[in-house]
TrEMBL record, chain B:
Keywords: Cell membrane, Membrane, Transmembrane, Transmembrane helix. Signal peptide: none annotated. InterPro entries: ABC_transp_permease (IPR001851), LivM-like (IPR043428). The chain crosses the membrane at residues 17-36, 42-60, 91-114, 121-139, 159-187, 221-243, 255-271, 278-299, 311-332. This is Branched-chain amino acid ABC transporter permease.
Amino acid sequence: MIADFDYQFFLEVLTGGLLSGVMYSLVAIGFVLIYKTSGVLNFAQGAMLLFAALTFVSLVERGVPFALALVVTFAIMVAMGVAIERTVLRPLTNKPPITLFMATLGLSYIIEGAAQLIWGTQVHGLDLGIEDVPLEIGGVLISQFDIFAAVVAAAMVLLLSLFFRYTRIGLSFRAVADDQFAALAVGLRLPLIWATVWAAAGLVALVAGLLWGARLGVQFSLSLVVLKALPVLVLGGFDSILGAIVGGLLIGASEKLAEVYIGDYFGGGIESWFAYVVALVFLLIRPSGLFGQKLVERI
Amino acid sequence: MTAISSDFPSAPALPKWIAPVLLLAFAYGVVPLIGSSYLFEAILLPFLALSLAGVGLNILTGYAGQVSLGSAAFMAAGAFAAYNFNLRVEGLPLIGSIVLAGLAAAAIGIVFGLPSLRLRGFYLAVSTLAAQFFVQWALTKFSWFSNDSASGVIDAPRLSIAGFALDGAIGRYLFALTIVAILTFLAHRLVSSQTGRNFIAIRDNETAARIIGIPVLKTKLLAFAISSFIIGVAGVIWAFAYLRTVEPAGFDLDRSFQILFIIIIGGLASMRGAFFGAALIVVFPLALSRLGGFLLGDLFDSGVLDMSQRIVLGALIILFLILEPDGLVALWDRVRRRLLFAWQST
């Protein structure tokens, strides 16, 4: 068994897994942004992703130029973020986090329904102009599209961290994430910050939506990638962008390796739950994830 | 809740058991005589199954404060367990397989409740999704569970108790009603017992509960077990009495959310809440399709109906969370008090 272990094949599976993990991280980052600043686990992230991709594709299909469609979709996502802050989050300020979570569950139903009511339920193809030809790097076949996605993800993470570090509003994000009451006390306008952060999450949803949409086709099941992102979040901690990335890579790699090497013992198709088991086992050892803040219990 | 009631005189001192007993008498004595088969097949049977599932989830989420997104998995476990006990154990009466199915669901509930010993809040909610995906995968993957049926969809056995066939719509309705009534009564007794108070203590403040000597770990697992037992039996009713087929596809994530919505809309930590919520969830799509068909005519096809259903349901959830966090139950109580007040002052 060990003797005829195909090292090349192993590497190929591993890289494939890592790269699909990047796609998971991309979705997970949208969650982290909102969780960090407002303590809400936004289940509607998947629906926002679907909405963004569907809007973009429908605009392009109606003859709107690529760049303009991108700008328009982004504007719509920003408007949506502001509207959500106004109508859902503000009336629910100071409610327990789990209530807010359920509200985003309702929100995801609304957004999914609206997206398909407006643009229809058929499957759209999305061509970003990147050919999905495998490249051979060091004897390992890697999908060109996956590399593109990884580069985009890296660029976005870099952009976000620069934004957080060097801009004034980024600084206030961090202040709010650190301590909401202190931020309020020094005069930061929380509603504005929350609206901005939802808009940023809308941007992440747009980017992730386009990449996933090019991969799977733009259709309802796109909103289910949120279910792939949740174990990543659990593994990495809900409030750490670094955690989302490392978690995504770990989940992506272990999922693919497990499917290839031990999937047969279970009759295959274990991808639907394996990530959750990995996350769970890990959590039993470290209950707040890889990089999550440790909770201090007080009475 | 008690703070609000000071504005109004309290309801006349009828014993608390009067209303449920009258309701049951009506459900047993009058409904079978006047109901059409549409009422039973499309409204009352799903209503009873979902209400019971709501009661089960309410014990876990409403009383013990552990959010679960995997209820449909326990329904599926119950339905398939009942089917297999019925199929494979010779001479086991139907009631026997239902009780065993509940116990099987409870055992699975305990396994997936184990993470609750270390996790809380969102981390726990997400980990209950593992139950959802794993159970559904296992039931589809291993054809043993569905007795090697090619399509994975199997006919439920005929309902009969002590040789008495309950095949018709009314028979299945009475069968479901009886089980729901018994389990709801037991659940009601449970939550007003010391165990129920332990659940509430853990929900309100786990650390404080531990300090006053409540065995937190044991109590949490107990909540998972009891809740899964009830939800499992609800799954049996859903498959055996309502759909009359057993298939994993009906027990998907959307069903889990539906049950969660039932207890949010109906009212957390309330037995009546599950019934109010289930009634709304069952009746509302039917009403919406009638209304849409009436207003929009042919434009309102099934696709539009499906989407507008999602939108309205989502909006309802948010509205309830904002305007009436205690659910339909609180709304109902307030309306009733106002009416009584108006009636007494005339």
